[in-house]
Amino acid sequence: MNLLRLNKRSGIEGNPGLNHFYQKLEHLIDVLQNKALPSDVVSEINSLIEKVNTLPDGDNRLKDMVRNIYLVIVKIVEKKCKIVPKNHYRNLWMAVSMAVFGIPIGLVFDLVNGHAGMLAIGLPIGLVIGMSYGSTKDKKAFEEGHQMDVT
Q1: Distance CA 127, CA 95 (A)
Q2: Which of 54, 80, 91, 123 has the fewest CB atoms within 10 Å, i.e. the most exposed one?
């Protein structure tokens, strides 16, 4: 089963934001076309593409819908097929580790030194921990073929 294509729209060149998100969605569909996706995932993605194709060109909701459908498709593919975009794990673990590791480490520095400004020292430490762990997971996903050529 093949993925549907987005309709060509003539009026989006004048709207740079809409044009950008529309091209990103087209690129995502092209990348997913080359992946072996289960038929239920393909039908779910096709129903989302049909929603975009049914909106008229001048509709104000088109930009938001295109952006949201892009994110929904990425989440569907991640959840059901374990295929993720480039740097997905790096970005995810960077934020998580800043909260999980960075703030407690900064709190320890604060308590040891008695200076509240030391709390901020833990955030870059957590950032580095998360980036290194996330990059390792991204590399593993690439080696296993579970990574899309989409950022």
Answers
A1: 7
A2: 54
CB atoms within 10 A of CB 66: 25
What pLDDT sits at residue 1?
Answer: 66
* Spatial separation of the C-alpha atoms in residues 65 and 56, rounded to whole Å: 12
Q: What is the DSSP letter of 11?
A: T
Bridge partners, 147 (sequence order) = 84
* 109: amino acid identity, one letter: F
| Token pair belonging to 145 | 């073929």
Count the alpha carbons within 13 Å of 96 in the hemisphere toward its beta carbon.
11
User: Average pLDDT for consecutive 10-residue bins of the chain (151 residues)?
Assistant: 85 82 92 91 94 81 90 94 94 95 93 88 94 96 92 81
Contacts of 31 (CB under 8 A, 6+ apart): 148, 149, 150
**Residue 113: what are its φ and ψ, rounded to 5°?**
-90, -20
